[in-house]
Amino acid sequence: MATSADLDRMWTVPNVLSAARLVIAIACFVAIERAAWANALGLFLLAASTDWVDGWWARRFGQISRLGRIFDPLVDKVLVCGAFVLLAARGEASAIAPWMAVVVVVRELVVTAVRAEMERMGQDFSAGLSGKLKMVLQCAAVALELAARTWPEAAIAGVELRTAATGAAWAAVITTAWSGVEYLAKAGALVAGKPG
Questions:
Q1: CA 98, CA 92: separation in Å to the nearest integer?
Q2: What is the pLDDT of residues 24-47, one digit of tens each?
Q3: DSSP of 38-70
Q4: What is the mean pLDDT of the chain?
Q5: How far from chain centre, in Å, is Cα 183?
Q6: Pairing mode, strands 159-160 and 155-156
Q7: Residue 3 CB contacts under 8 Å (≥ 6 apart), including other chains
């Protein structure tokens, strides 16, 4: 039976924020399905911002936990993969093509499986620079796609939101594939006993 101390370690501020992000992500998916683009954009931006906050809080106040190391990236994957899949399903008007969603989902499944095995072996398999960059670009692609649907005629510095969303989607997919290869290489080096 879980003790009070166990629950305190489990329900830290970062873990509560991750749980809230999961709920917000589901609400965002509902908004996308209903084509409530402004609501979906607001919910997505709120969910994405909590990812930065919970990471900062965990490091600043020493609340890094085993649950958080698993739960936080899992919720990130639900948010991004769900948004990519749902937006790709909206047809040719979407800057996110179905094959892009497949690349993102497959990469996340593979890296999650590899990370779980590395953690089981006692190896540190935290996100590297490429993993963090791909998350930023994935979020940018989703946010710009939602913004382009909210304000179809809008532009940023003379660049239409639709064009910006397409560029961000390509950048996200390229970085996603690159980071996946990098993680697999790192895992191979760890298994071979040559930490990279």
A1: 10
A2: 999 999 999 999 999 999 999 999
A3: HHHHHHHHHHHHHHHHHHHHHHHTT---HHHHH
A4: 85
A5: 16
A6: antiparallel
A7: none
Q: How many CA atoms lie within 13 A of 158 on its CB side?
A: 0
Task: Give the predicted TM-score (pTM) of the model.
Answer: 0.86
Number of domains in the chain: 1
Residue 140 β-bridge partners? none
Q: Is residue 196 part of a domain?
A: no
Domain assignment present for 174 = yes
Mark 6-17 as b/e (b = at least 16 C-beta within 10 Å).
eeebeebebbeb
Nearest to 196 by CA among 108, 132, 184: 184
Q: Please, is 180 exposed, middle or buried when counting C-beta atoms within 10 Å of its C-beta (0-12, 13-18, 19+)?
A: buried
**Residue count (the chain):** 196
pLDDT digits (tens, 9 = 90+) for 140-188: 999 999 999 999 999 988 999 999 999 999 999 999 999 999 988 888 8
Domain range for 90: 4-191
Q: Please give the biggest Cα pair distance in the chain.
A: 60
Q: What is the dihedral of CA 64, 68, 70, 75, to 10 degrees?
A: -140
> In CATH, what number is assigned to the domain containing residue 116?
1.20.120.1760
Q: How many whole angstroms separate alpha carbon 53 and alpha carbon 58?
A: 9
**145, part of any domain:** yes
